């Protein structure tokens, strides 16, 4: 089983959106028995909470399930459990690298999947309120990540 972990700050906006979108794309490709997806936050403020209302409303509008998703904090054990660790911005990458084992971990910056985009970090809609723009980036980036996984691992 190939595994992907998306990481953002609080695990209620960007990373759960990416988790839900990639799961949806995986299901559409019939790959659910080969790829699993999770998300986590570098902070602990929202542990146990469901995704942010803005994320839920947007995913609902696209018919994408987020059922059963609750926020959790990333841990050092995640480095050995996931094939792909994908962080949403530079701050999250620094926080991951500060964990035991983080300096050696292979971490992908989400926006490196989208070199054609001007922005180099996925904006945090918790602060910007722009969930549609985040969805646009997440949808495109998850498609590229799924293509990458299929080329490298399947």
TrEMBL record:
Pfam families: LMWPc
Coiled coil start-end: none
Entry's family note: Belongs to the low molecular weight phosphotyrosine protein phosphatase family.
Entry annotated with the keyword Hydrolase: yes
Domain Phosphotyrosine protein phosphatase I: 2-148
CDD domains, per database record: LMWPTP
InterPro entries for this protein: LMW_PTPase, Ptyr_pPase, Ptyr_pPase_sf, Tyr_phospatase_low_mol_wt
MF (Gene Ontology): protein tyrosine phosphatase activity
SMART domains: LMWPc
Keywords: Hydrolase, Protein phosphatase
EC number assigned by the record: 3.1.3.48
Protein name stated in the entry: protein-tyrosine-phosphatase
Keyword Cell wall biogenesis/degradation listed: no
Reaction catalysed by this enzyme: O-phospho-L-tyrosyl-[protein] + H2O = L-tyrosyl-[protein] + phosphate
